[in-house]
Design brief:
Number of helices: 12
Number of strands: 12
Number of domains: 1
Order of helices and strands: HEEEHHEEHHEEHHHHEHHEEEEH
Strand content: 5-15%
Strand order of the largest sheet: 2-1-12-9
CATH architecture: Alpha/alpha barrel
CATH class: Mainly Alpha
Largest sheet: 4 strands, antiparallel
Mean pLDDT: 96
């Protein structure tokens, strides 16, 4: 077993993932826990994919078998329960009784799930994870493809495109590049070169359109939400920074997010935006796209750390809050926020210790 070399924040978050009940007994992971109500939201297939990547990251850092066991439970839930074989896709949410508030499949969610299953395939070599990742990736390419971009949402059953809205998560956009990383990774894992052009198509589309994505809204809270999504675009650039236009977009994008985050944070601030920005800084510095601004990185680390629950019992302790409005924490402890913040703070610790390596596939 490896020696435990985690920041205290990552250790706390790891304990929260294992002990809080955010992962249901059947393996799926809830979208968030409502602090004020003391209950979990519905199980999200996307968030379960993020949880797999998080648990495997912690397993790789520590070698503690509890993380791999929890990741396997989540992966088998996705492949054996959540995967809709008749439709050939993953629904947005899962309910054991089959009653779903929104019968739909999301392009973005599918890519996150593909990446989680591929990480589990690399860790275990269990065929079902690679096979389901491949089937999901093929659905992304065939079912979501539109004229020049990819539909964000399909209605189930039947996979009919849902009318787009002026909200980032319900419209196509540059943020979809992060999910396209699933195709990039699958082309490497399966040896099938046919998947890579799908990533390249989304990359070209994202480079053409990303400049108009920010601010994109007049309301500060919605701009903050779009900063989160824009960081997805920047994360999706990481395998391609050898291309000058990608390295330039990454460096300029980090500066844009930094500026808007500083302007909006006093009114509304998301923990994950701080974490995503910090991770991107570290990768950009190591990849030669932007010199590291240590003062900004330290500030973002401190801001992200300030969202971690330090007490409140097992349901809360170690998890990270979604955000704060006018200085007050909101009543949501989120797996995705916890994953991004824990990884960012661990990577910052590694960077300061001279141990950080910019392997983009480890990015949750």
């Amino acid at each position: 077993m490896k020696t435990l070399l985690l920041s205290s924040a990552a250790q706390g978050a790891g304990g929260w993932f294992l002990e809080s009940g955010i992962q249901e007994t059947f393996g799926g992971v809830a979208r968030y826990h409502r602090v004020d109500l003391g209950k979990n939201a519905a199980v999200s297939t996307e968030i379960t994919g993020y949880a797999i990547s998080t648990l495997l990251y912690l397993d790789a850092r520590t070698g503690s078998p509890e993380y791999l066991e929890a990741a396997l439970g989540a992966g088998r839930f996705l492949t054996r329960a959540a995967w809709d074989r008749s439709e050939g896709t993953f629904p947005f949410e899962f309910a054991p009784n089959g009653h779903l508030p929104e019968a739909a499949a999301y392009f973005f969610d599918a890519g996150i799930i593909v990446r989680g299953l591929l990480a589990l395939w690399r860790a275990t070599r269990e065929a079902e994870f690679l096979e389901t990742a491949r089937a999901c990736a093929e659905s992304m390419a065939e079912d979501f493809q539109a004229d020049g971009d990819f539909h964000p949402i399909l209605k189930l059953p039947g996979k009919q495109a849902v009318e787009r809205q002026n909200r980032w998560s319900r419209d196509a956009g540059c943020y979809q590049l992060k999910s396209a990383l699933g195709w990039y990774e699958l082309s490497e894992e399966s040896g099938a070169a046919a998947y890579r052009p799908h990533y390249d198509k989304v990359l070209d589309y994202a480079l053409r359109t990303h400049a108009a994505f920010l601010p994109g809204e007049g309301q500060p809270e919605r701009v903050m939400d779009r900063l989160h999504a824009y960081c997805y675009f920047l994360e999706g650039l990481l395998p391609s920074t050898a291309r000058p236009e990608c390295a330039q977009a990454l460096g300029e994008g980090i500066r844009r997010v930094e500026r808007l985050l500083g302007e909006i944070a006093p009114q509304f601030e998301r923990s994950d935006v701080n974490a995503q920005l910090l991770r991107l800084r570290l990768f950009a510095a190591e990849l030669g796209a932007l010199p590291l601004d240590r003062e900004c990185a330290q500030r973002e680390a401190e801001r992200a750390a300030g969202f971690q629950f330090r007490q409140g019992g097992p349901r809360l302790e170690g998890g990270f809050c979604f955000g704060r409005r006018e200085g007050q924490l909101l009543p949501y402890v989120n797996p995705a926020s916890s994953a991004f913040c824990a990884q960012a703070l661990e990577m910052w610790r590694q960077y300061q210790a001279g141990e950080f390596e910019p392997h983009w596939r480890t990015l949750i």
